[in-house]
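The records we work with from here on pair a chain with its fold. These numbers are not coordinates but entries in a learned vocabulary of local backbone shapes. To see the layout at work, look at the sequence and tokens printed below.

. . .
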Amino acid sequence: MNSTTPTSEPTAAPHALRELLVFSYHEVLFAVDATAADTVIPWREPMPLPGVASEVLGVVQDRGRIVTVLAHPAGSPVTDRAPLSRIIVCLTPRGHLGLPASGTKGVTTLEIPTSTAAGQILDTPLGAATYVRPQEIASRLVKSASKPTR
């Protein structure tokens, strides 16, 4: 009897076809799942809130709902602010999150790994864009807000 051992080839990560909303923040492109983006509204200056994380600019009201507006689309604090023209309103399990944008570039369909991490660079037809996951940012902000301060 001849026993053969199956060769083990590396398995590729599963991919999914996704529609992505590509937008700019200053000169840098970002991409968010189009299904996560609820709407795009004109920029309005957020109302600052006391005691919030530096990643949050404040809140705006849109059609009767409160939107927490971030200082940076990736949820990072910023020190310099340039003019912005849009807020990408995303629905997360934690509420509405607003991603600041200089402009929207369009929606494109791209096949990407299902395990694509936030911050990963995607090669879209509109240019290289940093992938943003609003639900992860919202969870991270809630966790940092729940830590006791001393």
Notes: The beta strands are 15-25, 28-33, 37-42, 56-62, 65-70, 86-92, 95-101, 103-113, 121-124, 127-132.
